[in-house]
Amino acid sequence: MTAPRPRVDVVIPCYNEVKVLEQSTLATLALFDQNPQYDWRLVIADNGSTDGTSELARRLAAEHPRVHALVLEVKGRGLALREAWLQSDADIVSYMDVDLSTDLAHLPELIALVAERGCDVAIGSRLARGAKVKRQLKREITSRGYVALIRLTFPRLRITDAQCGFKALSRRAVELVVPRIENRMWFFDTELLILAHQAGLRICELPVRWVEDPDTKVKIVSTAIEDIRGLLRMRFRRPQRRTHAA
Question: Rounded to whole angstroms, how far apart are CA atoms 127 and 144?
Fold first, then answer.
């Protein structure tokens, strides 16, 4: 008897992305067709949009059986991911940015790290050896500085990129880690990785091709302040006992 295909939920968190959402959805569905080894579903997680994104998400869900619309009234990228992942019963959950800054061709590779190679958390990295990145110098410096700060506060967490919008989690990782994440915005990714590391879960990195979106919603100064506060909160909290071998 043939084993059932792993069920994979790919979440796209959205806030006022009506201009690019449909094109990105169609490109993702085409990639699903090219990779039938997984049972794919695309979840559009709109969080508080005011530009018609939620209506478009519902229309796309009505037109495409593999698309699901999750519409939240409250803004928060981390909140959207938390809700989508906790509502999912898929074997593997993942997410990527709606602008497809990370080359979509990497998605099956990312999922395979969890489905076939035993990783609990798989993350795209723009700074690992082999990555190919096009972005402004100030953002490159900011990213490298943030990784250095993570290594200073959590030296045993050996990652090269915490905030690339391209991650996948096993069902075990979802159940152990996601309910404990407090942040609802941009620090969500880093908190996820810190908690996964403290739980003894296996974190794997995938070097990616990544091109910066000039219309990005990320604001460097406010995000940096949020990240520093988040790192201090996590650094000085009492860690949970490790429950799995590293």
Answer: 8
Helix %, strand %, coil % of the chain (to 5): 40, 20, 40
Burial label for 156, CB within 10 Å (0-12, 13-18, 19+), is exposed
Query: How confident is the model over 62-116, as pLDDT tens digits?
Result: 999 999 999 999 999 999 999 999 999 999 999 999 999 999 999 999 999 999 9
Active site residue 189: yes
pTM of the model: 0.91
Tokens for 31?
A: 């990639």
Q: pLDDT, tens digit, for every residue of 110-169? A: 999 999 999 999 999 999 999 999 888 888 888 889 999 999 999 999 999 999 999 999
Cα dihedral 216/94/34/214 (nearest 10): 10
Identify the active-site residue in 189, 213, 215, 227: 189
In 3D space, the residue among 238, 155, 187, 160 whose CA is nearest the CA of residue 82 turns out to be: 187
Q: What pLDDT, in 10s, does the model give residues 43-57?
A: 999 999 999 999 999
**Strand, coil or helix: 45:** strand
| C-alpha–C-alpha distance, residues 36 and 29, integer Å | 11
- Angle ∠(147,113,106) on CA atoms, nearest 5: 75
Close Cβ partners of 92 (under 8 Å, ≥ 6 residues apart): 6, 7, 8, 9, 38, 111, 114, 115, 168, 169, 170, 171
- What separation in angstroms does the CA of 62 have from each of 30, 65, 68, 142? 17, 7, 8, 40
